[in-house]
Specification:
By secondary structure, this protein is an alpha/beta fold. The chain has two domains: 163 residues, D-Maltodextrin-Binding Protein, domain 2 (3-Layer(aba) Sandwich), CATH 3.40.190.150; 115 residues, Periplasmic binding protein-like II (D-Maltodextrin-Binding Protein, domain 2). It contains twelve helices and ten strands. It has a five-stranded mixed β-sheet, sandwiched between helices. Helix 2 crosses helix 10, helix 4 packs across helix 12 and helix 7 packs across helix 12.
Length: 325
């Protein structure tokens, strides 16, 4: 009887301690384990490299390893859904890009709503896009390209990466705003596209600047214009398309988002650490070497950027009648 009473008291004491243990677990400092950074694209590409730069910085600042998890497929939607479904505790993050804003309209019946189901943490860079031409192409500027296209409807070929990517949307927006009839030729990647434009199989292309810069500087390609809102230090004399086609702007961007419901203090911590990284000389140098200007927005401005981009590219997707490949 005495033994049974002692057993009961031990069990009761253990049960009474459970709320305290639960509170202690909840009060553990963030992060309490490794952080998973999901990159919804294959390893080795520009986005993957950007993510690993930021992940390495965060590993140092957080005192926990940031593990990159490449979850490619369905235009980035597989990796995005994995993060949306993850616990909202700051230990699973997504490297988000302009593709997420485009996919919101491009794909019907997605099992998530990107803007509703994620919380913006921090932006970190713009991804400049360039309108480039084979050196033998007669047009020397955007104005001449538009004039040539209007004089030869359906004859000019403009290459671009797959539908739904930033360069492909830039090409569609250019065709729409310039009011020209050109043939858009999709490629599965920058490598084959650059080879064909250098070889003269296509005349003009929209590309990420980092993929084209070496060819432009070597004279294998000619930069007709930049697609973004501002000129870039690497090509200081190259105008923007918007300087000829009023209101035109197209560029990629990258940043970190977390599952909706992630505690505000965790979001604030991550935002602060990433913002600090954007002022670190080593991080800035690595991004600059890829031709990527930093984009240090407040959380509110990053959220507005995502909303604006989703609306803007939604209009282009609908106007072009785009469907995923």
């Amino acid at each position: 009887m005495q033994r049974a009473r002692r057993s009961f008291l031990r069990l009761a004491a253990g049960a009474a301690a459970l709320p305290g243990l639960s509170w202690m677990a909840a009060a553990q400092p963030y992060p309490s384990k490794f952080v998973r950074l999901v990159i919804p694209f294959p390893a080795g590409g520009q986005t993957d490299i950007i993510g690993r730069i930021i992940g390495g910085w965060l590993s140092e600042r957080l005192g926990q390893q940031v593990v990159v998890d490449n979850r490619a497929g369905a235009g980035g939607n597989i990796g995005t859904e994995a993060v949306v479904r993850a616990p909202a505790d700051g230990h699973t993050l997504l490297l988000a890009t302009a593709t997420n804003a485009i996919n919101a309209t491009l794909y019907d019946n997605l099992p998530f709503n990107f803007m509703r189901d994620t919380v913006p943490v921090a932006s970190f860079n713009r991804i400049p896009l360039v309108l480039e031409a084979n050196p033998a192409f007669p047009a020397q500027s955007v104005a001449e390209l538009i004039a040539t296209a209007k004089a030869n409807p359906g004859k000019i070929t403009i290459a671009m990466p797959p539908k739904g990517t930033g360069p492909s949307m830039a090409a569609l927006l250019f065709r729409m705003m310039a009011g020209i009839d050109v043939v858009l030729v999709p490629y599965r990647g920058d490598g084959p596209m650059q080879a064909d434009i250098i070889g003269g199989q296509v005349q003009v292309a929209f590309s990420g600047l980092s993929a084209a810069l070496e060819h432009i500087k070597a004279g294998r390609l000619r930069a007709l214009a930049l697609a973004g809102a501002a000129r870039v230090p690497d090509l200081p004399d190259v105008l923007t398309i918007g300087e000829t086609v009023a209101g035109y702007e197209a560029s990629g961007w990258a940043g970190i988002v977390a599952p909706r419901g992630t505690p505000a203090e965790i979001v604030d911590r991550l935002h602060g650490e990433i913002s600090a990284g954007l002022t670190d000389p080593k991080v800035k140098a690595r991004l600059s070497s890829m031709g990527l200007p930093t984009l240090a927005l407040s959380k509110a401005d990053f959220e507005k950027l995502i909303a604006d981009e989703t609306e803007k590219w939604g209009r282009v997707v609908k106007s072009a009648g785009l469907k995923p490949e």
